[in-house]
Amino acid sequence: MMSAGHVQWRGCLSIHGNFEYIPGYWEWAEDILSHYSGILDGALLSDVVLASLCFYDCSDAFLKAFCDSWCRSTNTLIIPPGELSISLWELLELGGLPVTGHLFDEVVPIAECLSPTLDSDARLPRSCRFLLLSSHRLASHFLDSIVYEENVYCAAFLSCWLCVFVLPVEPLFFIRASVFKMASILAKGSRVSLAPPVLAYIYRSLSQISLSECTGEP
Length: 218
Hints:
three-stranded antiparallel β-sheet, alpha+beta
């Protein structure tokens, strides 16, 4: 919903200033929070997943002033009292994103990493295999039944959550197969260090906005 000078959203995605509702996301997230609370608590994700369902008011004038004050060469805000920046502390204390845990590694794993002959510490969760298989079948329009195991349902949701709300890189609205590995680890209740890549994404996005303001690019 949009109002004069403000934007409110709930389970929505911002695209070039417009807000698009994601059909079914609200219901899916509520189901995950209800049935997988223990897993989400272990991964320190309960609060941040819940945050994706909230309404947020955002002043266009404030956002413009914020971006105008951003220095892309130092990743700081140039304001009268001095320079300020966004740190991992803000993402941990204010955003709730974990700083410690497995290193966030967005990559499509090779088949050997899914082999049951590997040691348990080196082997990826079986849910990752099912997500990759489902993605392949959807891409090839081969929609035969797949017997899901472990926490595939939770891992599938977290894949969507990562692509839409945590690291929404283009093309938007698409779930990237490269997040299946991390989503499967999170669906086991393991912590993943999400704050560093999110901070880097924020820096990159603000720098792109600052550059487009200087060059006049859209």
